[in-house]
UniProtKB/TrEMBL annotation:
InterPro entries: Cyt_c-like_dom (IPR009056), Cyt_c-like_dom_sf (IPR036909), Cyt_c_1A/1B (IPR002327)
Residues of the Cytochrome c domain: 28-128
Keyword Transferase recorded: no
Species assigned in the record: Sedimentitalea xiamensis
UniProt entry keywords in alphabetical sequence: Electron transport, Heme, Iron, Metal-binding, Signal, Transport
Protein name (database record): C-type cytochrome
UniProt keyword Iron, yes or no: yes
Pfam families: Cytochrom_C
SUPFAM superfamilies linked to this entry: Cytochrome c
Signal peptide: 1-21
Amino acid sequence: MKPIIPALLLALSGLATGAAAESTFEKVKVDAGAQLFAAECRRCHATDADHESYGPPLENILGRAAGSYPDYEYSIALEASGIVWTPAALRAWMEDNDGFMPGTKMRHVGIDDRTVQDFILAYLASITTRDGSKIAD
Ligand code: HEC
């Protein structure tokens, strides 16, 4: 039985390091996403209702029903779309919003680099706190 304990400890410490590396990576992604958001989205989108926002504020956007931010004047296309903002829907939106949803009043943004999308998604997940659960990609 004896050799099992060191092996177990080794496995556990491996797990712990893995988790730490994972969270550092997550933080780097969120920071990069915050910068990309500032460059690509922030001129039209605040993250919360405390700041002026030409487009709808994007707090809690992951898992939110499209067109549901209170008192925002959406296009009919977006309001009637019936979609929920999953990571996949947000990718399609960043890549080609007006192709994905003809009739939207959001001007075309063409972010087709998956890594850039990943970073912005990580940032959007970080401002999504409504149910506190982890957002899967
Ligand atoms: C030029 C201004 C502008 C830029 C830049 C912009 N948006 Fe928008 N966005 C809008 C407007 C306006 C709407 C509302 C569209 C409608 O009602 O059809 C919108 C809507 C959205 C929605 C739907 C929100 C909801 O409540 O359903 C999401 C998600 C979104 N934008 C994400 C982004 C992201 C991410 C970026 C940056 C990559 C970005 N937008 C860049 C103006 C902009």
